[in-house]
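User: I'm preparing a small set of examples for a lab meeting where we compare how different chains pack in three dimensions. I only have the primary sequence for this one, and I'd like the structure in token form so I can line it up with the others. Please keep the answer compact; I'll paste it straight into my notes.
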Amino acid sequence: MAERAGQMDGARRLLARTTLEEMLKERENKKEKVLTLKKSDTVAEALEKLRKERVLSAPVVSDREDVDEKEKAQVPFAVEGILDVSTVLHALFSYMDRWKMRFDTPQEFAYCLNVVSPSFLKEEIGELQERCDDGRCIFKSQCRCSMLETVEKFFCTQSEHSGVVVKNVRHNHRILVLDMSFHPVDVVSQTDILRYLDKHTEDLGELRFKTVRELRLSKKPLGQITANIPTYEAFRRMDREKISGYAVVDPMDFTLVGNLSASDLRGLTSKTFDRLALPVGEFLTFQRPRTSLTPIICTPSTKLEDVIHTIVWLNVHRLYEVDANKRPVGVVTLTDILQCILR
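Assistant: Understood. Below is the structure token output for the 343-residue chain.
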């Protein structure tokens, strides 16, 4: 146990000596401006804005019309929350439920979609009952804290007494950075933390050579679906089970063929809602023609540095552990890696 704690010290020291502010300055491909959505935007307008920026989510802001001019001059914006495409999809399903619509087949889903879409797409996003609960806000001045403190406070939850990581139903995957006017100026994600670790793997010490098995990184059981079920049904299950992704398996031999997650909704708009009636395999081919059905895997003997590098360079959020028959038996997520460093 003492040896393992020493191995973790390298990773913890790396994150402890670097502030979040320093990491953000070093970060590559930073966008000059954070996309924001207006509370008064319709669902159709919000989806189109997300598509144009090729992002999955954006903060929703209001103009604070309910306060006097003096206060509004000091704090002109109010962040109402974060809207992502999966939240819109959940809102669509809820909208159909309120209309007492049942859809047990893709044909029934397509019919229901045609009926409710015109009115649903005109709804203002500020009026949607659904909200994305994945995200926290901090002020830019708070970015002087260490990356280790950021991971501990925002991306993982630990017991105050034992230091043991507590597994919540959901974890934060992003932090919204605000200026003193409460306007969003940056977004920090778990992927940003992993990118930093990948650039500084030599500072992880012996930990980087430890394997998935040795670090007990792979989680079991894992959610999986067959490639032939309708996509809308897969996302409904995902929402009910409060998970962020499924291993997609062949319906005949249950070998891993791909991954389905909220990331696959990127670019979805009112004009492409009908793709949700397709089988998962076909939906993925439309959404990500180059990489949709290329499983990203690891084995029990894969080293931590290789896990981090693969996730960063392929821009994925999970690796699946497969057995000798190429069937998924576990999954490694970004949260698992960050929790491993904190243990």
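A couple of notes for your slides: The first helix runs from residue 2 to 16. Residues 70 and 76 are 10 Å apart (CA to CA).

User: Perfect, thanks.
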